[in-house]
Amino acid sequence: MKIVAIDNVLFAEDAFSTMGDVELVSDRNISNKILKDADILVARSTIKFNRTLLEGTGVKFAGTATIGTDHIDIDYLNQQGISWCAAPGCNANSVAEYIVSALLYLASRHNISLKGKTIGIVGVGNVGSRVVQKALALGMNLLLNDPPRAESEGSDGFVSLEQLLAESDIVTMHVPLIKTGKHPTLQMVNEKFFELMKHGSI
């Protein structure tokens, strides 16, 4: 089995060498020609998983070492019977820790206490739920907005985006890129978004 992996996927050779022969390729050099006799492709969001790259190749499985899937032509892969997967949540704790470190830095720089401040968390999935845990540990008050979760679980514990923006001292966003449907997030942060934010909020 031949596995082609982008060389910026950490530990790809170690992880997949027990399954077959691993060829590491830079994202600049990946091509349809290189994949002609490949069985598996492992890459990141810099690579478009589409007809141009995959047509006529031997690829039967394509994996992205990222959360998002907007670089994957899912319809094409499904039509061709190419299995695929993403890695939702793979860096969730790291992102939550980054948010906390940024908040602690701002608090120190501006000589403010985070305890008792209200943090509005938009998107309470893999990342947002971890931010919730860390914010509670810091003694912060929470306002949560996640329309898909509110629909499936009930509205208790969730508020509208408008209320969150008006009442939060700090706003943090953790939503996937959704271009269509009932709850699109594309261009969610716009002029109106900032106008609704509490004066002086972060």
The gist of it:
This protein has helices at residues 12-16, 51-54, 74-80, 92-109, 128-137, 147-153, 161-167, 191-196; strands at residues 2-6, 21-25, 40-43, 61-64, 83-85, 118-122, 141-145, 170-173.
Description:
- By secondary structure, this protein is of the alpha/beta class.
- Helix 3 links the parallel strand 4 (61-64) and strand 5.
- Helix 4 (92-109) packs across helix 5.
- It is elongated.
- The strands form two sheets. Strands 2-1-3-4-5 form a five-stranded parallel β-sheet. Strands 7-6-8 form a three-stranded parallel β-sheet, with helices on both faces.
- It has two domains: 2-85, Rossmann fold; 92-196, Rossmann fold, CATH 3.40.50.
- The longest helix is centred in the middle third of the chain and has 18 residues, at 92-109.
- The protein has eight helices and eight strands, in the order βαββαβαβαβαβααβα.
| Shape field | elongated
| Poorly predicted ranges | none
Major beta sheet, specifics? 5 strands, parallel
Mean pLDDT: 94
Helix percent band: 25-40%
C-alpha-based Rg, rounded:
21 Å
Question: What is the secondary structure topology, with strand pairs?
Answer:
Layout: E1 2-6, H1 12-16, E2 21-25, E3 40-43, H2 51-54, E4 61-64, H3 74-80, E5 83-85, H4 92-109, E6 118-122, H5 128-137, E7 141-145, H6 147-153, H7 161-167, E8 170-173, H8 191-196
Which terms would index this structure?
2 domains; Rossmann fold; 202 residues; elongated; single chain; alpha/beta; 8 helices; five-stranded parallel β-sheet
